[in-house]
């Protein structure tokens, strides 16, 4: 380790209030954006969505993309998440900018369906 | 429902930036305190600890108790978590007030051990 571990973050854990700003990369290592927040199941404690802001790459700001957790993998070397999604997949993806969606089952099926996943997963 | 659902929160999900302040009760319905933050496993997306601030009941302020997630159950009616812990269990519990602990495996065994649980759970 060449830098000190941030408060509220270790190699394994991250505090819910430090989630925002975690970087997101594509598999080539290009920086796509960053995490805005996680949506956590209150009962199971499992993160269901990571909401990401993809600013730079698409040339649009403040648009939030809810991604099913299983799309993400954590890359300890880069200290961020890797998502294997091409630009066209993101362009047609469910997103919002002003106020949160309802996060109900209909919305979940829409989001998961877009990424070729079945909801519920469990 | 008699009140509107808060933004970033539904019956099922809560946003990582809205976790703070969620109330914690004992099984009798007494309010113990509130949640300060979750500690989330970056890879699995599973909450490992809920950190709770128990202010009023013990007469001490700003002390944070990391609790293994499995100690909590969510009570939709009260909109908060229920923890079945007597006062003496909390009085001797691992806690901190100034800066975060290291959150390493030694610390995890200490916390889980206090509550009669084995770490790792998975």
Automatic annotation (TrEMBL), chains A, B:
Annotated InterPro entries: PRC-brl_dom, PRC_barrel-like_sf
PRC-barrel domain sequence ranges: 15-88
Domain of life (superkingdom): Bacteria
The protein's name in its UniProt record: Sporulation protein YlmC with PRC-barrel domain
């Amino acid at each position: 380790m060449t830098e000190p571990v941030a408060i509220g973050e270790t190699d394994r854990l991250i505090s819910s209030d430090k989630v925002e700003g975690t970087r997101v990369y594509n598999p080539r290592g290009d920086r796509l954006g960053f995490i805005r927040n996680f949506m956590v199941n209150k009962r199971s404690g499992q993160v269901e969505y990571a909401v990401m802001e993809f600013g730079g790459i698409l040339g649009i700001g403040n648009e939030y993309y809810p991604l099913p957790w299983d799309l993400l993998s954590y890359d300890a070397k880069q200290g961020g998440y890797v998502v294997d999604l091409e630009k066209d997949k993101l362009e047609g993806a469910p997103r919002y900018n002003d106020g949160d969606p309802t996060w109900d089952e209909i919305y979940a099926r829409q989001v998961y369906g877009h990424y070729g996943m079945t909801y519920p997963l469990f």
